[in-house]
Design a protein that fits this description.
The complex is a heterodimer. Chain A is an all-beta fold. Chain A has one domain. Chain A contains no helices and 4 strands. The relative contact order of chain A is 0.39. The model of chain A has no long low-confidence stretch (mean pLDDT 87). In chain B, strand 1 and strand 2 form a beta hairpin. Chain B is of the alpha/beta class. In chain B, strands 1-2-3-7-4-6-5 form a 7-stranded mixed beta sheet. Classes of the chains: A mainly beta, B alpha/beta. The interface between A and B is medium-sized, with 16 and 24 residues. The complex binds zinc ion. Zinc ion binds next to loops of chain A.
Chain lengths: 60, 373
């Protein structure tokens, strides 16, 4: 079809620091599970927890 | 030849009935359409439908390949798995007779659960190292592949029958439902990657809202694949219920409700679920209402309504609108972003509809793939 554009969906993971509340968005890695505590926070010594996992679609 | 004074009027003259060439030019197509109109329509429509069927065939093949590859790459499967999978894909379910509707919900539930139990045991027997979470994944992938196979078979059957009998009216309903079927089938095909990698889908928004509230509280297994936490909130007792994540399951909220109400007095039920949006409505908008918000074949809803009615418990619902595709593919940003707001709405509802000392049951309804608690 002429008018349909190719759509690409990328999965993202948003981490939230349990201490200072900083949000970081990065690409989804295999094994990411919602609500699990993962990495050290960049701005303080707290731990981050996965807050959201979602897909964003862009048309090309 | 001089083209400038060519007499168009004479050639295409409507009034001149005597011109035999003109008679043919007008009458031939009319005769053609009167006697062969259906065949022409059939030909044009067939081409469109054939394209759709070819697409459905590729979806069916693709989903089967994905399932087999997943089993091969992630779980050590025994050699006879191909034969087994093809057998599973062709399973059918015969719904109970509905001439006498009394007691039909139990019968439907029994049939559906037997099927689930059977596939669960037999999928599990394919590999020694299959964890429960892997098992739910494989079961979901199997469900998708067998649904796509069934859709392909039915549509192809309808088409071939119409074609064989050269029957245009028979092809009309097919032409009408095909766009809806294609939408469903495409959504199912697109659902595979999310389930494979254990990501939350749009339908998981209900469990996501309740799952976060359950974090860091004690959980108990209250019914098959269903998890419960009890917490205190401003003088009220909250029972938080969702299917057990992060496996791909919807759990058995109705059975859980039955167990809970046997031991506790519940004063209100709040259900949070994804709902199909209407065409033209925006995705990820929320709406509140009354009654049990829960999809599926209807047995769970029936059971929940029955218990709520007999115990006179009001049911409130919050739904998050989304399309068929959004509901079963990787959760969109817009839907994920509503989680905080919906949680706030739940607390507001508790405030408005209950008083201190009362108990509220909050159910996060939906597929809990990738959503723990
Ligand atoms: Zn921090």
């Amino acid at each position: 079809m002429i008018f349909s554009k190719k759509k690409i969906t990328t999965a993202y993971t948003v981490e939230k620091c349990t201490k200072c509340g900083t949000l970081t968005k990065r690409k989804f890695h295999d094994g990411d599970v919602l609500f699990t505590k993962s990495t050290k926070c960049n701005s303080c010594d707290g731990l981050t927890r996965i807050e959201k996992i979602f897909g964003e679609t862009i048309e090309q | 030849m001089n083209f400038t004074n060519f007499d168009f009027d004479q050639l295409f003259s409507m009034s001149d009935d005597t011109n035999p060439l003109m008679m043919l030019v007008w009458i031939l197509p009319i005769i053609l359409f009167v006697f062969y109109g259906q065949q022409i329509q059939l030909f044009v429509t067939s081409r469109e439908i054939k394209k759709g069927i070819a697409k459905l065939d590729s979806f069916r093949e693709e989903s089967r390949t994905e399932l087999i590859n997943y089993l091969k790459n992630n779980l050590k499967v025994k050699d006879d798995h191909l034969k087994k999978i093809d057998k599973f894909l062709d399973y059918f379910t015969i719904m109970p007779v509905d001439m006498d509707p009394n007691g039909i919900v139990d019968k439907v539930q029994h049939t559906v659960r037997s099927r689930e139990d059977y596939t669960r045991t037999h999928v599990k027997s394919m590999s020694l190292e299959m964890s429960d979470i892997e098992l739910t994944k494989v079961q979901t992938l199997l469900e998708i592949a067998s649904s796509l196979q069934m859709i392909y078979k039915i549509i192809n059957h309808m088409f071939l029958t119409a074609k064989k009998q050269n029957n245009y009216p028979l092809i009309l309903p097919l032409q009408m439902i095909l766009p809806f079927i294609m939408e469903q089938a495409e959504a199912m095909k697109d659902a595979i990657p999310a389930f494979k990698s254990g990501q939350p889908v749009g339908d998981g928004i209900g469990p996501m809202v309740v799952g976060k509230m359950m974090l860091e509280h004690q959980k108990e297994n209250i019914a098959f694949q269903t998890s419960l936490s009890q917490i205190d909130f401003e003088g009220r007792k909250l029972f938080l219920l969702k299917a057990e994540g992060p496996g791909s399951t919807v759990g058995r909220p109705a059975d859980a409700l039955e167990t809970i109400t046997m031991k506790n007095k519940i004063d209100a039920i709040i259900m949070v679920d994804a709902a199909l949006k209407m065409e033209g409505e925006d995705s990820a908008t929320t709406a509140q209402g009354f009654g049990a918000a829960i999809g599926g074949i209807g047995t769970e809803r029936f059971q929940i309504e029955a218990i709520a009615t007999s115990k006179k418990i009001p049911i409130f619902s919050i739904v998050i609108k989304q399309s068929v595709k959004e509901a079963i593919t990787l959760m969109t940003k817009e839907i994920a972003d509503t989680a905080e707001d919906v949680r706030a709405q739940v607390f507001e509802m508790i405030h408005e509809n209950t008083s201190q000392g009362q108990s509220v049951l909050i159910i996060g309804v939906g597929n809990t793939a990738g959503v723990p608690q």
